[in-house]
Amino acid sequence: MINLNGVDLNLIRVLDAMLRERNTTHVGARIGLSQPAVSSALNRLRRMLGDALFVREGRRMVPTPFAQSLEEPLRQALDGIQRALSGDAFDPARSTRLFRMLGDDYLSENLLPRLVALLSTTAPGVRFQLLPVSLRPLADQFAEGSIDMAFKPADEEPPDWVEHTLALHGSPTAVASKNNKRLALAGIKDRGIIPLDLFCDMPQVFFGPDGKLAGEEDVALARIGRRRRVVFTVPDFFSVGRVSAQTELLGTLPDKFALSIANELGLRIYSLPFKMNLIPLHLYWHRRHTGDLEHRWMRERILELLEPLDAVRHPVSLGETGETDNPAASPRQPVAWRRGKGRERRGRD
What we know:
Layout: H1 9-21, H2 24-31, H3 35-49, E1 54-57, E2 60-63, H4 65-86, E3 98-102, H5 105-110, H6 112-122, E4 127-131, H7 138-143, E5 149-153, E6 162-170, E7 172-177, H8 181-185, H9 196-201, E8 203-207, H10 216-223, E9 229-234, H11 237-246, E10 250-254, H12 255-265, E11 267-270, E12 279-286, H13 293-306, H14 335-339, H15 341-345
Parallel strand pairs: 3-4, 3-5, 8-9, 8-10
Antiparallel strand pairs: 1-2, 5-12, 6-12, 7-10, 7-11
Helix pairs in contact: 1-2, 1-3, 1-4, 2-3, 11-12
């Protein structure tokens, strides 16, 4: 454990500049020190941290794995100190921050292209990583600082220091190949309703990244005493679409995701033959970032880009009347939404 009382902030500036420049002469010019002073500072850092930090390769100084692991935390810390001391308002055009967000391919398909376009014009220095959702508790990943945000269903109760806000409601729909034989024999048209008996009897592919064989559709079916035949699971939504498009398996996907890939894969979309509550999806972050101007700016942009995907404010019409619930048109709210209402308000920007 390093005693911060003995740490010279100028040493941290030298380390940050070395990670950027990889050359002691360039570092000296960058921060106003002579080359011998930079070398002396590096030697002090090596003794203090117990690591070589940089090794020479020709004219370049190459960082060790430990030094590389410090690059992003140091940069964010120094940027934060600069903002705090200067009192400057946040300017996204000058930001070089890296944002790491947990999410699945729902975001890859429906959010990232628009986010890339937004950042390229308003915050070209910002970097963004979409990381795969893992089975580890969300709180553990926030506590260790490995992620900045997460987008997922409200399927776990996080501690009070994990803030969250309702981002959108998802609405599932059925998908199948345009050449699916059973649906063709039954005369079910694209955008039509699959009869309940046929839906339950058809073999199905299921989005199950957590290893489970059942989801919200199965909960809804159980309420009416029915079950479906899940015979295959895949870890992402796009695989549900691809497997459904190339086999006789039926799949279920978020409606706007299904619409975005249907033409590309050769899918047809169908209404579910039973009532389902809409699925609330939340944006999560650590409370320490709530007042962070950069983090808040990114949260607000993401929520704005997700808003058109909300099944309450922008419901999808499949052309025929299905039996799915729509809380925007009915006084009865979905159970999951009603129970979580208080929590969803906490941390809302």
